[in-house]
Amino acid sequence: MTGTIDHRAVHDEHHTVGELVSQAAEQLSRLVRQEVALAKEELAEKGRRAGRGGGLLGAAGAVAYAGLLALAGTGVAALSLVLPVWAAALIVTGVLFVIAAVLGAAGRAQLRRATPPTPEEALGSVRADVEEIRERAHR
Fold first, then answer.
1. Distances from the Cα of 84 to the Cαs of 32, 70, 73, 114, 138, in angstroms?
2. Are 49 and 114 in contact (CB under 8 A)?
3. Would you say residue 67 has pLDDT above 80?
4. Nearest to 107 by CA among 50, 52, 51, 53
C-alpha cells in the first residue's frame, strides 16, 4: 500500500487543541507561581536592607543625641573651668559626632539600596517571558 497514510499514527504524533490549551495553561500557571516566588524573595531582601538601614539611622540618632549632651557639658565645663577640662570634653564631643556621621552615612546607603521597593528582577523576568510568548505566538 504505497501512498496511503495511516491516520492513527499521524494522530498519535499530534496533540489536540484541547491538550495544547491544557499544556499552555499548566505552563503559564507554573510560570506565574515561579515569578511570584521570585518577587517575594526580592521584596524580602529589600525589607531586610531597609530594616538594617533604619537601625543604623536610629543608632546614629542616639549617638548624635549623646553628642549634643556632651556638647552641653562642654559648654558648662568651658564656662566654669579652665582650658584642660573643656578641651577634653570638646574632643569627646567631636568623636561622638564623627561616629554619628559614619553611622548615618551607612544607614543612608542601606536605605538607598532598598528603594524603590519593587521586585525589579522579577518584573524584568516577567517582561522577558511575555516577549518570548509573543514571539512564539506570532510563529
1. 69, 15, 14, 46, 83
2. yes
3. yes
4. 53
Distance set, CA 36 to CA 12, 115, 128 (Å): 36, 19, 15
Contact indicator for 57, 107 with CB cutoff of 8 Å: yes
Write out the E strands in the chain.
none
State the amino acid at position 109 in one-letter form. A
Query: Can you give the pTM of this predicted structure?
Result: 0.40
Instruction: Please name the residues in contact with 121: beta carbons below 8 A apart, sequence gap of 6 or more.
Output: 38, 42
C-alpha dihedral (51, 56, 62, 64), degrees to nearest 10: -140
Residue 1 CA to residue 47 CA, distance in Å, equals: 71
CB 111 within 8 A of CB 50: yes
> pLDDT at residue 10 above 60?
no
The answer to whether residue 13 scores a pLDDT higher than 90 is no
129 is written with which cell numbers?
517571558
